């Protein structure tokens, strides 16, 4: 039997998933890596550590012994967006990988947004925000960041792998789009954006379609992974559009909702659409398809934070089993009524992206009383993530049209409670696939199309094993509708105070 691998380079881990041609998972491996915070609001990773994790994940798949490497048709690659690494002329990283969550360039973002931001957004589809490599590069230029001054190339983490493994500087359209320097109408690097960064076109990689085939795996990677020297790779795309593909949310009205460390809600589109409100992103995927939507900075990271803040006992009971600790926290949340007895949580622990694009936003519990307990905090935190996604959904529908079908993927798709909250808040049926590795399956399918084993991307709809669906409770939906109105107004009321607090935190 022939197989295909999806390699997903995420925010906190690299996952390798071995699929059959019909989308059934036969083996999977996950290797985590560290995130460092050398200064307040700085978020960095070691690209060498990420590369090692990716190779180790692939090696685990090969060693699982499910199939011979001769039966692996192709490896498709998915990765998180907005990372930035400075490279020297010898192809070595001379800076950390600065991630999407990094907030060091908030002042540069504010300045650009108030001047040429709209023009840049209308051409690139990337909202002006510290997540964007465009804004990171402007920060580097204005602060004389040493690696920037010495850099030969500026790349994302996927491009870093392409250079290390195949000695090529190439980037797929969606990763290029997410830089804020790629024109989604012409599919070329934008000269105005480049001028703002002070770098040259030649310091960026060559943009290629997501079906671009890469061959000539380095001997070192062959030895460290066990893959064959002639194993074909397809460059793939970013994790967002690949999640849509892997879950089957590819027709008009199909909406994919993904929550991992962060979260996002997305629709595919047949033409690029942006407007002056600058609330959502619009990234190129292929020459005739785009992905529109909005990310939230705060998804599973909220539950992780709650575990650290109020889950000490659950961690103790789980005896360092992270999965069991989270399960116990969710079990506590189940004991609380929908709406957490009037407790709301604005989940902006890491600032916020869509639809506000406000790096100054901060997390806030509203409505606390003496009657509220640990379980209320957990439930309110989970509900706050979904409320935040609903604000993005409303902005998305304005440009992409009404949503008809909802599909859920990512780590939260393993939580029945979180999925039921999603159905109840949105008032919509939510479909869930058997595998929560939708980005990996999207990458694998992109690989099959790239090497000619499948003809059309849209044919994947016939090969997505679905698990179940969640139906909304009308009673719960009414509760959430009432609270959601307050949730939205709270951000507007607190916005000026968030800036005051965030400025204070940066100074101290």
Automatic annotation (TrEMBL):
The Carbohydrate kinase FGGY N-terminal domain sits at 3-246
Q: Which UniProt keywords apply?
A: Kinase, Transferase
Record-linked SUPFAM superfamilies = Actin-like ATPase domain
| Start and end residues of each Carbohydrate kinase FGGY C-terminal domain | 256-449
Q: Is the Transferase keyword given for this protein? A: yes
Q: This protein's superkingdom?
A: Bacteria
Q: List where this protein forms a coiled coil.
A: none
Please name the Pfam families in this protein's record.
FGGY_C (PF02782), FGGY_N (PF00370)
Q: Does the keyword Kinase apply?
A: yes
Q: Which family does it belong to?
A: Belongs to the FGGY kinase family.
Q: What is this protein called?
A: Gluconokinase
